[in-house]
Write a structure and sequence with these properties.
With 167 residues, the chain is mostly helical. Helices cover 67% and strands 0% of the residues. It has one domain. The chain is globular and about 45 Å long. InterPro entries: Antitox_Xre (IPR011979), Xre/MbcA/ParS-like_toxin-bd (IPR024467).
């Protein structure tokens, strides 16, 4: 794994820990591990639900954006907002995404995690996401990520690939 990815993972771990210990989350009286990792967060459905309801802060999204295989244009499309809105959110420190956008951000984080487990690097994952796939109706996986059913199809296909089950 490259030093850049490792550096982003370290920053993601710090950012997710700070977010999960913020007043937006701790008001829910759920005990959060003092040093939760980003990967640990993605494995905890209850923490994901709390994060969605609280709204993902732009600072966390910015790190996820650096970590994930999606371009700014992809993110705008996936979140169903304009790139101009993303720029405005970036300029406004302290912006929190609405729950509907927060859920999509976390879903794409899950796709990224599974994809990196399968392919081992972001470039191979990016190539796979943008290549039409016979098992996915000859669509590029990225085309299916706009809704949760499509995301589940993409993750299922990644898991099949990981287990050597090729259609």
């Amino acid at each position: 794994m490259s030093a850049t990815i490792s550096n982003i993972e370290t920053r993601l771990n710090r950012e997710i820990t700070a977010f999960l210990h913020s007043d937006r989350i701790t008001n829910h009286q759920i005990e959060v591990n003092k040093s939760i990792t980003y990967e640990g967060f993605l494995e905890s459905k209850i923490l994901i639900i709390l994060a969605i309801r609280a709204g993902i802060p732009y600072s966390l999204f910015n790190l996820i954006q650096d970590y994930a295989p999606f371009t700014e244009s992809d993110w705008a499309d996936l979140l169903n907002i304009s790139t101009k809105s993303l720029h405005r959110y970036k300029a406004f420190s302290g912006h929190y995404f609405k729950p509907v956008h927060s859920e999509k951000i976390i879903e794409m984080s899950e796709v990224t995690k599974v994809g990196l487990d399968v392919f081992g690097n972001i470039e191979k994952l990016r190539l796979w996401l943008n290549t039409p796939n016979y098992a996915l109706g000859k669509l590029a996986p990225i085309e299916l990520l706009k809704d949760s059913y499509g995301k589940e199809m993409v993750i299922s296909e990644l898991i099949r690939i990981n287990h050597g089950i090729l259609v």
